[in-house]
Structures are given as C-alpha cells and as structure tokens.
C-alpha cells in the first residue's frame, strides 16, 4: 500500500500498520516530523477525509461509480465536439472509450445502463453531425449537390 503526497508516492510499511486503514496514520511518512504542528494537524485531517472518502466509495456499488465515469467520458466527448474548431480526433477517442466500456459491461450496469446507452447514441449522432460539418468547412467543394428542380 502506498499514499500519494505532494512530495511523491510513499510506501506505507506493513509492520507499522495496526490493521486499520493505512491512510489514516500519516505520522510515519517521510518528512512528517519536519512539518509544523499546524501542518501536521492539517495532514492528519486530510488523511481522515481521504479515509472517509475511500470508505464511502467502497460502500457504493461499482456499477454506480462506473456509470459516473462513463458520463464523464460523455462530457469529455461533448467538450471536444463543441470546441471551435471541433477536436474530432479527441472526441473520437472519448466516444470509442464510452462505447467500449458499455460494450464490455453490457447487462451489468443495472438501472443506469439504459440511460448510458441513450447518452452513447446521442453523442455518436452529435459526433457524426459535427464531423460532417467539419469536413464541409475544410473542403467546401465536397458539398453535396442539391436538386433545385
């Protein structure tokens, strides 16, 4: 087990762990003794907050956490598509990642799955539309001919 600090990643020695969450005891970390008493208290408070967050996270169904991350990927794709000019290649990575996660976890995301699949369809449609518009802007001669009869 290790912990990240501003000074880098630090291993937490197993023999110093009393079986409780190793994040809670930061006093054994390198450089802790060099902190002021106020900084030490702040480090302890941050470690306690981190331990509480980890506890809450471990009590939340993984499907809910994954759904949250998938929606973050959706947002990432939307951001890249809304850039001026759109970042088509970056958006494609995000759309493909979203599709891949949903494909691999099909049938395992519970109540969130239908909403996620609808979101994927929406971002795929937006991707196609923005890609086509972007191509037209880059090559105006490739505009489809319209029948004006």
Keywords:
149 residues; mainly alpha; two-stranded antiparallel ribbon; 58% helix
Explained architecture:
The structure is a single chain. The chain has 149 residues and is mainly α. It has 2 domains: 2-59, no CATH class; 62-142. Helix content is 58%, strand content 5%. The protein has helices at residues 37-59, 62-82, 88-104, 113-138, and strands at residues 2-5, 8-11. The radius of gyration is 24 Å and the shape is elongated. The termini are far apart.
Number of strands: 2
Q: What is the molecular shape?
A: elongated
SS field, number of helical segments: 4
Beta-strand content estimate: 5-15%
Helix content: 55-70%
Mean pLDDT: 86
What's the gist of this structure?
The protein is 58% helix and 5% strand.
Layout of SSEs?
Blueprint: E1 2-5, E2 8-11, H1 37-59, H2 62-82, H3 88-104, H4 113-138
Antiparallel strand pairs: 1-2
Helix pairs in contact: 2-3, 2-4, 3-4
